Amino acid sequence: MRLAITDLEVSFGERRVVNLAELAVGEAEIVGLAGDSGSGKSMTTLAVLGLAHTVGARVSGSIRLDGTELTGLSQREMREVRGRRIAAIFQSPALAFSPVFRVGTIVHRALRLHGMTGAEAAGAAERAMRQVLLPPGLLDRYPSQLSGGQLQRVAIALALALRAEVLLADEPTSALDVTVQAEVLELLRALRDRERMSVLFISHDLAVVAELCDRIAIMQHGSVVEQGPTSQVITAPASAYTADLLASVPRLATGAGR
Amino acid sequence: MTPPEGAGAAGPPGPEGSVPAAAPAPEGTAPAAAPAPPGAAGPATPAPQGAARAVGPEPEDAARGAPPLLEVTGLAVRFGPVRAVDGVSLRLAVGPFGLGLVGESGSGKSTIGRAVVRLVAAAGGQIRFEGKDVAALRGPALKRYRRAAQIVFQDPDNSLDPRMRIGASISEPLIAHRIVARRLAALRARELLAEVGLDPEFAGRYPHQLSGGQRQRVAIARALSVQPRLLVLDEPTSAIDVKAQARILALIGHLRAARNLAYLLITHNLGIVSELCEQTAVLYLGRVVESGPTSELLSRPAHPYTQALRSAVPEIDMAARRARLVLPGEPPDAASPPPGCVFHPRCPLATDRCATEVPALREVGTGRQVACHRAEEVLAGVRTGARPASG
After folding, report:
1. Which domain holds residue A102?
2. pTM
3. Which of these, A33, A245, A175, A218, lies nearest to B245 by C-alpha position?
4. Domain check: are A123 and A56 in the same one?
């Protein structure tokens, strides 16, 4: 397993917001973590990134990346892991890019921070842009000159350039148009197949999760209430909560009017 | 709930300071200019016969002489060099009636909604509400229109004052439009909260104490407070999670019947219009590329863009999955639209003709219009160039 989470607990004082017995992502696998707002999905992301303490939360349990235990690492060691070995993309790509720098400057700086030389960084950035089907020329632009979908793909390109072992994708398409969402989902699938990328895909939208993911874990009140292969969870949900989430998805098939 | 009657203009609360506390004026106070109910003697200016080219309810509606509630003809809105809306025609019947406006970011759908409630000015074309030219409204007539046509925005965080209690936010337009006496406004606000499925006790809370879905209900309650006949719902569920979204959509479905509401539902997700809108117009780069009854448009799209939009909606049923049409690239810059059909650079069916000749919006079947040279082939199920998704 690329990423293996066991007995993860995240608490704010006495209040436990995540109580995750087991969640794992294998090589070339996309695992979906679905649930409502407040179910603990994003706190799980923060814990895996070693950032839960920044919001005042306490973390216990085990998070292993290719066998390396992450929970005991110092902040300095964790900084090496974060971005380099575990990349993350979030709902608002616009917030992930400083508006005052060109996109390429931001990408180069991140690559050099993780040990590449200037020339290596330039080459890696261009290659990665092509991998996410963007013209490398976009690197010369400012973030405001790119669309949300393009910026999200640049964020994914950065993860590719760094050869990240795991990509955490926290609601990466929730702010995008359905057409652009479809493109990003297709890109993630292609990267799984071609680059053997491992993705933990977090979303409230079970339809998106069902389309993209190989396996699904359903989270409620901080715990995983159900997990399994996508087809099984979708066609024969074991928990009432999953069935409820499924029922909330708007269906195209229904006729109009009433 | 009394169905909305006569009178009204709503919208951003008027000059509240100047409103005397007296004169609680519910319905009926509207002067003679009050919009005539459908079927009654029509307004002075009859609706132009743009019917054939406008999205809207059945033609017999016009035949019976009842003007549509809203008729948009050749609407154009410009922001500098950008033609945000370029010759759009739409019709909305008197409620209960839903018209979906669907398209990607930059398609002009929100701008149309804003033009309808006069938040942006039209550069061309006409918007008629019950036969009257909305652009020409002034003074009391404009205020009545602002009351009759309300808008609900995507992000309730930006439409509710964070320092105002929920009850006060809902009462404000009630007082500004003198719908109830100041002393009764709080009570009315509580009734409205109950109507949108919230605990009336929420009146005492602040916006940050509510969830996103609850705040959106408050925004809807506030819009309903002035008894509008037309609601513009601008991506009302895009900022909230799926379960809250399903509940908001159910609420809209309930309100349309209970209040005879007509609405423009603006969304990028075709899945959302399918249950709430009789008619749908698909927009691309400020133009209507296809329109018609929602069920037909979804089951048998006539425009390749509609096909692609439909195909982009994530679906849960394994059986419903099909080869996905992924549109290459992004919509072009509206400041310099491509020649010919504006969709041709991304269209899987584009031919040489599409690059030079602008396709006119034309009839294909009853009540359906499409702007595509190859619509007949699309209707017949051609999906040339479709590239199946890899997963």
Report:
1. 88-163
2. 0.78
3. A245
4. no
Which of left, alpha, beta for A53 (phi over 0: left; psi -120 to 50: alpha)? alpha
Residues comprising chain B, all counted: 391
Does residue A252 lie in a domain region? no
Q: What residues in chain A have their Cβ under 8 A from chain B's Cβ atoms? A: 36-37, 147-150, 177-183, 185-186, 189-190, 193, 204-208, 210-212, 231, 234-235, 244-258
Q: Is B183 on the interface with A (CB under 8 A)?
A: no
Q: Is B209 helix (H, G, I), strand (E, B) or coil?
A: helix
Calculate ∠ Cα B243-B245-B246, nearest 5°: 65
Domains in chain A: how many in total? 2
Question: Of A182, A210, A254, which has the smallest distance from its Cβ to B324's Cβ?
Answer: A182
Residue A257 lies in a domain: no
Question: Is A252 buried (19+), middle (13-18) or exposed (0-12) by CB count in 10 A?
Answer: buried
Per DSSP, helices labelled H in chain A are 41-48, 75-81, 93-96, 103-113, 118-131, 148-161, 178-195, 206-212, 230-235, 240-248
* 3-state SS record for A109-150: HHHHHCCCCHHHHHHHHHHHHHHCCCCHHHHHCCHHHCCHHH
Q: Is residue A127 part of a domain?
A: yes
What average pLDDT does range A131-160 have in this prediction?
A: 89
Return mean pLDDT, chain B: 82
State whether ipTM is beyond 0.90: no
The 10s digit of each residue's pLDDT in B245-281 is: 889 999 999 999 999 999 999 998 888 898 899 999 9
Name the domain boundary from A108, A143, A163: A163
The answer to the question of residue A254 being in a domain is no
Protein fold of B55-379: Rossmann fold (3.40.50)
**CA-closest candidate to residue B88, choices B39, B47, B124, B134:** B124
Are A123 and A175 in the same domain? no
Mean pLDDT of A206-231: 94
